[in-house]
Amino acid sequence: MISYAQNNEDVVLARVLGDAPGGFYVDVGASEPELRSVTKHFYEHGWRGVNVEPVAAVHAALARARPRDTSLCLALGAAPGALTFFEFQAEGISTLSEDFAAHFVRQGLSCTRRTVEVRTLGELCRDHCPGPIDFMKIDVEGWERQVLEGGDWRRFRPRVLLVEATRPNSTEPNWMAWEPLLLGQGYRFAYFDGLNRFYVPEEERALLARFPPQWPASLRQAWRRALELALRLAGRGPPR
Fold this sequence. Notes:
The protein is of the alpha/beta class. The chain has a single domain (2-78, 120-233), classed as Vaccinia Virus protein VP39 (Rossmann fold, 3-Layer(aba) Sandwich), CATH 3.40.50. It contains 8 helices and 12 strands. The strands form 3 sheets. It has a 7-stranded mixed β-sheet with strand order 4-3-2-8-9-11-10.
């Protein structure tokens, strides 16, 4: 298995859910279609899903690379409308959170402000999810609670939900602000990989036994990181 994800999240998901064709995902804060993508491995195995990515250039790349998917250039929040989006050139830190944006501006990073369309997670699932959701990933740089507040958790219940759980570019935890909401909707904490927290709904609690007890030595799959392979092909990676 080649892992495309930032922190090998796709390896964990493949272990828990399998990767047989026919699965469905929702990727909120999808980012690039290949490197650092949690869904690329599954797309290659015949899955499809919905990608939410408010950075226009990245959304365009997703739309070109993923013709089976529905890729939306918008953001999610607690209510529909329009909000200011803080877009940074540095990958993976653009955000709707004014506090998080101010933190990176203080570090000297350049930020462009623009208005983006905002919908709720419940609306997105209603309009674009025709059946069960095998997994949902949320990576929104400090905007997690607002996205979760917009969900319809009675009607749409992903079998596995993973949410980035630390402040951007740090190991500082930030899940205390939103985890009670998930637990109150009947989700159980399953696993923390140092970056993301994984959850399963009570009705899927049998999946808990499939999560690795430690990372990564307990994984039985053979996996290699796509970024490392690309660097080796370019002659810039470490030796085999």
